[in-house]
Specification:
Layout (H helix, E strand, L loop, with lengths): L4 E4 L5 E4 L2 E2 L5 H12 L5 E2 H8 L8 H16 L12 E4 L2 E4 L7 H9 L5 H9 L11 H4 L2 H24 L2 H14 L4 H13 L3 H19 L5 H12 L13 H10 L8 E6 L6 H12 L7 E5 L9 H9 L7 H9 L5 E7 L2 H5 L9 E6 L4 H6 L3 E4 L2 H20 L3 H10 L6 E3 H8 L3 H13 L4 E4 L2 E3 L2 H11 L4 H17 L28 H17 L3 H17 L3 H18 L2 H17 L3 H18 L2 H17 L3 H17 L3 H17 L3 H18 L5 H14 L3 H17 L3 H14 L3 H18 L5 H4 L2 H4 L3
Parallel strand pairs: 7-10, 7-11, 8-9, 9-10
Antiparallel strand pairs: 1-2, 2-3, 4-6, 5-6, 12-14, 13-14
Helix pairs in contact: 1-3, 4-5, 5-7, 7-8, 7-9, 8-9, 9-10, 9-11, 10-11, 12-13, 14-15, 19-21, 19-22, 20-21, 20-23, 24-25, 24-26, 25-26, 26-27, 27-28, 27-29, 28-29, 29-30, 30-31, 31-32, 31-33, 32-33, 33-34, 34-35, 35-36
């Protein structure tokens, strides 16, 4: 079989041969191909084919039509195949046809290979990653209702259910959450699927999102089917609603009066919202009291208990970060408005743990009748008491002394029962900048395998020093942490340094796929394109990275600050979180300046310039670039200097000064021609061509684009050729050479498809429509572009679909 031959039916019906997408032609021919693929190498009779293609009575010449489609499909599969030849792929069988497919050529057979027998969770996830939509989703619905397609859909559904259940059991909810969420979006009335999605969201720490999903599904069932949620959905709701963390391993001693006062302040359904401020020194048991009260009062709040650690004593969460945690949303424009709308009509108890001060907690207070907020803080929260009528509960030092002695004795006994290895892990956890950890992080801290770390964590759980609050995730209270910090003073400076470096290396290693903001390649400035939400599971990781940057900077680990800024920069850049990216870049600059490293200082300045460009603060961006350019000149770093000039070129163009941008582009070309990197030369030539086209110097643009293409072809670099073909197409179109422009755009389109650049594919299709030889060709290109944009969830606007060379023109 040919390894470059690949077909898909678990989603859109697509085929690639030697890197090129196969053209299936008419909708009926696509439907026939889908039917053959869904049969996965088994025969399909003529009766089945005509029954699927013509619902009802097929026409008299149906068999002739099918034979015509079969011939066309054979020639599409094997270009150059003589007419009436059978070929090696689409074979005749008694009364029908069969596609000769294997797991190496068809996604459905690969799916079945992965799910056969007793597959692991990893195999299930890999199999489900092949199912990118409904089976044969681009085939008419009346054809997809054929039993062949419904049977395949049931296979996928069964694998999805198994994967979801396995992920819940193994504490790996995040691995299947995206695909279950996508499936639920396609099937808004599937109660069983939505029940599993609720449980996965809850297991991933998104309790609010799980409860919100229940409300949406319940309302949809009532509106569209006039029914109430079934037992599976109600049971999932009950499990999410009542699963409040217990008070924790610390003994709940000596707080009866405070607990009674707190519970009495919780409102009845028709009473105004209440705020209880629980304050006291570190280790006083504030979190224990709040969680114990929340557990006891959970059944009084039918819409759930929401819980967030505001991290006020370390790296305080912003309002947007807290809302993302509470509500499970990623795109937080106005966090206060989103929070209010999410809680509208719901009666909830909100636990705001470890607030920095009243100001941090204020915008997170629920306002509806019957709701309540319990806020814990080392601050006295006087602002909440004065302006939000909060009821203060101060945990007094005297009471703490009595409590701490009791608990200290309990902790000491637990600690003494530990093995030396588990005791070492407990010391190490005190240096971890969070009160929650997983076995991978723990294994890195102590230099052990994840399996060894799990065994040691289980030992800590058995002695009640930590709690496995969900599978694979371990947490401990503030008072336990303080006890561990006490014990950790016995660690030597070298031991503490080793733990720190292991911690830093763990997060760097696990994020090494990220692109450093301080090591940008010679590319354009960030595109002004719609932003897709970032992965929800990265939210907690991002907060941890910001904490690590702060700690590394404060403790003199400047080299790690630089590297962490690069790691977090990739996520922040893709999510367009420019203010936070600015903070990370500023930290990287401070670290570089402290070490006196001129090269890194210049790189940090370049990264900050890019961030200011993203914030549309072009004057500051240009100023930073100028300083960095001067440093790179002194360092004789021509490659970095060329990168800066290219960034400045795009920046000038974006600021409406293409002539100034062209000067920078010319400088780029001069610099890269002095070097020995032909790929950079080709990139610079394309940039120069783009700016020449913007200044109506189309012949020069054509010449430079062609030179760029010659270099790239000699290097065998295909991907970079796509942008250059787009530039060449634009210049030829402006010169009135529609035929040459069409050829250029089609070459670009082929490359975009080869490398899966779907957004660029849509953009080039729209350009093809402008130079198409006839209306049907233009309309087909526009329709294909619209289909791609719908798949990507991108609004259909000119800016979103026109490639770099054409965007300014539109």
């Amino acid at each position: 079989m040919e390894s470059s031959f690949w077909w898909t039916v678990l989603g859109p019906v697509r085929g690639r041969r030697e890197g090129r997408e196969a053209g299936l032609g008419s909708p009926q021919r696509r439907a026939l191909m889908a039917l053959l693929l869904a049969r996965a190498g088994r025969p399909v009779t003529m009766g089945e084919i005509t029954g699927a293609l013509w619902r009802g009575e097929p026409p008299e010449l149906a068999a002739n039509v099918v034979q015509g489609h079969v011939g066309a499909i054979r020639r599409m599969l094997e270009p150059g195949l003589p007419r009436r030849a059978t070929g090696k792929w689409l074979l005749p069988t008694p009364g029908g046809y069969r596609l000769a497919m294997t797991a190496e050529t068809l996604d459905l057979l690969r799916f079945r290979e992965l799910t056969a027998g007793q597959p692991s969770l990893g195999e299930l996830v890999e199999a489900l990653s092949l199912a990118v939509g409904e089976v044969a989703e681009d085939v008419p619905a009346e054809v997809r209702s054929h039993p062949v397609f419904t049977a395949v859909s049931e296979e996928v559904d069964a694998a999805l259910r198994t994967a979801a259940d396995r992920a819940l059991a193994e504490g790996m909810a995040a691995t299947v959450l995206p695909m279950v969420r996508a499936a639920a979006a396609r099937r808004p009335l599937d109660e069983e699927l939505h029940a599993r999605l609720m449980l996965l969201l809850h297991a991933d720490g998104q309790q609010a999102a799980a409860l919100e999903l229940f409300g949406e599904t319940r309302d949809r069932l009532r509106l569209e089917l006039a029914v109430h949620p079934g037992s599976r959905l109600r049971e999932a709701y009950r499990r999410v609603l009542t699963d409040v963390d217990p008070a924790g391993p610390e003994a709940f001693v000596g707080r009866d009066d405070e607990l009674k006062a707190l519970l009495e302040r919780l409102p009845q359904p028709d009473e105004p919202a209440a705020v209880i401020a629980v304050t006291g020194m570190a280790g006083a048991g504030k979190t224990a009291l709040a969680r114990h009260a929340a557990r006891l009062a959970a059944d009084r709040f039918p819409d759930g208990v929401l819980d967030v650690d505001l991290n006020g004593s370390v790296q305080a969460l912003t309002t947007s970060e807290a809302v993302r945690t509470l509500v499970g949303a990623q795109d937080v424009g106005d966090p206060a408005a989103l929070y209010r709308s999410s809680l509208s009509g719901r009666r909830v108890l909100v636990l705001l743990d470890n607030a920095r001060d009243a100001e941090q907690a204020r915008e997170l207070l629920p306002g509806a009748d019957g709701c309540a907020a319990i806020v814990t803080s080392r601050d006295d929260l006087a602002g909440l008491v004065a302006f939000n009528d909060a009821y203060p509960i101060r945990l007094r030092p005297l009471a703490l002394t009595t409590l701490t002695e009791d608990v200290r004795t309990s902790f000491a006994r637990s600690y003494e029962a530990l093995s030396p290895a588990a005791a070492g892990l407990f010391h190490t956890l005190a240096l971890y900048p969070s009160r929650e950890i997983g076995s991978p992080e723990a294994s890195s801290l102590i230099g052990a395998t994840p399996q060894q770390a799990r065994l040691l964590l289980a030992e800590l759980v058995s002695t009640h020093l930590v709690d496995e609050h969900r599978p694979g995730r371990y947490s401990w209270s503030g008072i336990v942490r303080d006890y561990g910090v006490e014990l950790a003073t016995a660690l030597s400076a070298d031991q503490r340094d080793l733990v720190r470096r292991r911690l830093f290396d763990h997060y760097l290693f696990n994020n090494r796929q990220a692109t450093s903001i301080a090591r940008m390649k010679l590319t354009a400035m960030p595109p002004e394109a719609p932003v897709r939400p970032a992965c929800p599971g990265y939210e907690a990781e991002r907060r941890m990275l910001r904490t690590l940057i702060t700690e590394a900077l404060a403790e003199g680990y400047g080299d790690y600050v630089w590297r962490f800024a690069g790691v977090i920069g990739d996520y922040l850049d893709r999510a367009r979180l420019w203010p936070e990216l600015l903070a990370a870049g500023a930290d990287a600059l401070r670290a570089a300046e402290r070490t006196g490293d001129s090269a890194r200082t210049a790189q940090a300045l370049r990264g900050l310039a890019r961030v200011h460009a993203g914030l549309r603060d072009y004057p500051t961006a240009i100023k930073l670039m100028s300083v960095a350019m001067s440093m790179f000149v002194r360092l004789d770093d021509r490659k970095s200097l060329a990168g800066l000039h290219l960034g400045a070129a795009w920046l000038r163009a974006r600021a409406g000064r293409p002539a100034a941008g062209a000067l920078h582009a010319d400088r780029v070309l001069t610099l890269v021609r002095q070097g020995d990197d032909p790929a950079e030369t080709a990139s610079a030539l394309n940039a120069v061509g783009w700016f020449e086209a913007r200044q109506d110097r189309y012949e020069a643009a054509v010449a430079h684009s062609r030179e760029s293409l010659r270099i790239l072809a000699d290097l065998g670099v295909r991907r970079a050729q796509a942008d250059t073909w787009d530039t060449l197409g634009f210049a030829n179109r402006r010169l009135g050479r529609r035929r040459e422009a069409l050829v250029s755009y089609r070459r670009a389109l082929s490359l975009h498809r080869e490398f899966g650049a779907r957004a660029a594919e849509a953009a080039t299709l729209r350009c093809i429509a402008q130079v198409a030889p006839d209306v049907p060709t233009a309309r087909q290109a526009v329709d294909e572009a619209a289909d791609i944009l719908r798949e990507l969830g991108v609004p259909e606007t000119p800016a979103a679909v026109v490639p770099a060379a054409d965007r300014q023109d539109h």
